[in-house]
Amino acid sequence: MAAPNSHPAPMTTTPNTSAPAPAPGLRASRLHQVFDQALARTLRANSYANFAGCFPTPAKYVPASLESVWRQLNAKLEESAKAEFDEILAEREAVAHLNELDRLVSEAKERRERDRLAGENGEARGPGNPPHTLGAEELYKAHLTPYLEEAQATLNQKLEETHAQNTALAQTVQAQRQEIERLLASLESVVGDIEGAATAAAEFSKEHHIRQDAIQMDREVKARPNV
């Protein structure tokens, strides 16, 4: 009986047909730059002086060995950080997305410039842009405009009501003023009548006094003898 073949069949490897990573654009390059700067600051913070301060005995007796360990540790930290960063970029397809964002921003700027030139030349602009192509300020204004228009309409209505109330109040005040003027005219007439009556009463009182004096004189003359 033949012994069974204990060697497994050779595995066929599938060639890597994935597309090469895209070259980083403006924003992707800036992201790499920010990461490199942050990593460099971290490595500078882990200086040999700080590292040796944590191991005073080896730093005193075997400083060369301790410095070698420090260099290997920093190199491993740098290598691990870069590898993890590249892995995250590849997993999230960050470079491709950032390049797409660069393209969209560039197209939006070109479209805005064309619209500006068209407006300056008096040309009609095309239909409204899709929301995802608008900038932050345009989206903010588009979202806020309905509320501002509603508030403006409410304020206009209140202003009209206040104007109507002021008009009615002005008419009431004018009517009251006319009524006061009529009352004053009537009061002046009454005052004139009172003054006339007072004058007449004074004249009557004076005439009555003269008459009384004449009667008294006549009585005195008659009362004298041989008159």
Automatic annotation (TrEMBL):
Residues 1-26, 109-135 are annotated as: Disordered. It is found in: Chromosome, Centromere, Kinetochore; Nucleus. Residues 109-118 have a biased composition (Basic and acidic residues). Pfam families: Nnf1. It comes from the Eukaryota. The keyword Cytoplasm does not apply. Residues 8-20 have a biased composition (Low complexity). Coiled coil: none annotated. Transmembrane segments: none annotated. One of its GO terms (cellular component) is nucleus. One of its GO terms (biological process) is cell division. The keyword Cell cycle applies. Keywords: Cell cycle, Cell division, Centromere, Chromosome, Kinetochore, Mitosis, Nucleus. This is MIND kinetochore complex component Nnf1. It comes from Penicillium diatomitis.
